[in-house]
């Protein structure tokens, strides 16, 4: 047979096949309830964590092929989250609520608090890596898992709702800054000699922007659909190209993917074209990502000792403290809404997993960091999912505008 000439073991596809089967069953089980207890993303993450409790099961699933799929899935998730960027907040009309101003103020205070609170963990930083550890902890504490939070918020609230836009804008900027921060850290402290590749990435993004912004798209109407799917092919090619260049540049692989999503959103590419990529990602890559993400949460290792439990609780407390400025939302919204939005802002996990590869912190602390981050991705979302009054205001829009005018 022709295939016999290839040295490939189909047994290596078994873990992928099983994960796809599990990912297919989870939504069926959750949607069987009249009111699902958790979002599907949470279900996939929880199942991954449960599977990871057994070391043999974890080793069965974490193979070179699934690890590669995990990286591509992460980049796909960040591409789609970049596409979720709300650029309308940059062009506020007179009389409108200044969402961007308040988000930037809140983010600035959060970063200052994150920098100060990072010193609480100085004894867990390896020798000779003090300032690297402080910088990384600041990035982690200020980050928010926007790729995870925004889709859940949009699934339960109106996209144009002010609290949705505030939460989404904050999460987007927080994640964007964490990606930039990690990339700069890798270039500076790892002495990357391929910084010129970052320039190539930016040039490619600029070319894509110019082409999509000013080209006559009607020229492609006859070939973009049907069997050819030119738009989908080109998008996937550029996506993989930027991910590869980011890897060779020695920066975060999600750098190029996230910026590509932002560029495509800014030039207002037809949502019909993006829907093809979204369906491709949501049907295969994203479910695999959350299952594989859960498999990497070291629950057993951390909770097997009191020191691990203690570290996890302290990290959770600090994560809550640095985001306290966001409770200022209670000025306009009910305590329930402000508290839920505040808790959602603490959700972070990708940065915690990334820090494990830097060898800056002690092993036990890095593991506790991942477990604490996983908790922030589960508990706040469940609270939000069952908060049916989310978005309820304390004051009307006219009262809010009067307060803003008085503050000017």
Helices and strands in order, then pairings?
Blueprint: H1 14-31, H2 40-51, H3 55-61, H4 64-83, H5 99-118, H6 130-142, H7 146-156, H8 162-189, H9 195-214, H10 230-248, H11 254-266, H12 271-295, H13 299-303, H14 306-322, H15 335-345, H16 350-355, H17 363-385, H18 397-407
Helix pairs in contact: 1-12, 2-12, 4-7, 4-11, 4-12, 5-6, 5-8, 5-14, 6-8, 7-8, 7-17, 9-10, 9-11, 10-11, 10-12, 14-17, 15-17
Number of domains: 1
- Text of the CATH class: Mainly Alpha
Secondary structure category: mainly alpha
CATH topology: Na+/H+ antiporter like fold
Q: Low-confidence segments, ≥5 residues, pLDDT <50?
A: 219-228, 403-408
Please give the largest β-sheet. none
The Cα radius of gyration reads 22 Å
Distance between the termini: 78 Å
* Percent range for β-strand residues: under 5%
- What sequence of helices (H) and strands (E) makes up the elements? HHHHHHHHHHHHHHHHHH
Number of helices: 18
Helical content stands at 55-70%
Mean pLDDT: 82
The strand count comes to 0
Any idea what the CATH architecture is? Up-down Bundle
Shape: globular
């Amino acid at each position: 047979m022709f295939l016999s000439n290839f040295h490939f073991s189909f047994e290596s596809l078994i873990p992928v096949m099983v994960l796809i089967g599990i990912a297919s069953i989870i939504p069926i089980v959750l949607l069987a309830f009249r009111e699902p207890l958790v979002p599907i993303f949470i279900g996939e993450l929880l199942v991954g964590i449960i599977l990871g409790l057994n070391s043999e099961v974890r080793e069965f699933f974490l193979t070179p092929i699934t690890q590669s799929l995990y990286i591509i899935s992460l980049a796909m998730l960040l591409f789609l989250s970049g596409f979720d960027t709300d650029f309308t907040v940059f062009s506020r009309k007179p009389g409108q609520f200044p969402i961007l101003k308040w988000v930037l103020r809140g983010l600035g205070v959060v970063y200052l608090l994150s920098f100060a609170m990072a010193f609480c963990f100085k004894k867990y930083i390896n020798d000779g890596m003090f300032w690297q550890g402080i910088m990384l902890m600041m990035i982690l504490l200020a980050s928010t898992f926007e790729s995870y939070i925004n889709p859940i918020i949009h699934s339960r609230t109106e996209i144009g709702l002010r609290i949705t836009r505030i939460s989404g804008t904050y999460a987007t900027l927080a994640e964007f800054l964490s990606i930039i921060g990690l990339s700069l850290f890798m270039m500076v402290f790892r002495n990357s000699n391929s910084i010129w590749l970052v320039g190539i990435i930016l040039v490619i993004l600029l070319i894509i922007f110019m082409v999509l912004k000013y080209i006559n798209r009607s020229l492609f109407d006859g070939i973009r659909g049907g069997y050819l799917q030119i738009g989908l092919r080109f998008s996937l090619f550029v996506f993989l190209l930027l991910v590869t260049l980011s890897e060779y540049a020695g920066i975060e692989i999600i750098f190029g993917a996230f910026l590509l999503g932002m560029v495509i959103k800014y030039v207002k590419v037809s949502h019909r074209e993006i829907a093809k990529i979204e369906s491709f990602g949501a049907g295969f890559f994203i479910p695999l990502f959350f299952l594989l993400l859960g498999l990497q949460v070291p629950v057993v290792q951390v909770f097997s000792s009191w020191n691990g439990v203690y570290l996890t609780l302290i990290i959770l407390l600090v994560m809550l403290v640095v985001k306290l400025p966001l409770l200022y939302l209670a000025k306009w919204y009910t305590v329930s809404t402000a508290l839920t939005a505040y808790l959602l802002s603490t959700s972070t996990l990708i940065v915690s997993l990334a820090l494990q590869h830097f060898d800056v912190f002690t092993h036990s602390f890095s593991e506790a960091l991942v477990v604490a981050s996983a908790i922030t991705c589960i508990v706040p979302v469940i609270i939000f999912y069952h908060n049916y009054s989310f978005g309820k205001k304390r004051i009307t829009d006219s009262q809010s505008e009067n307060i803003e005018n008085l503050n000017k």
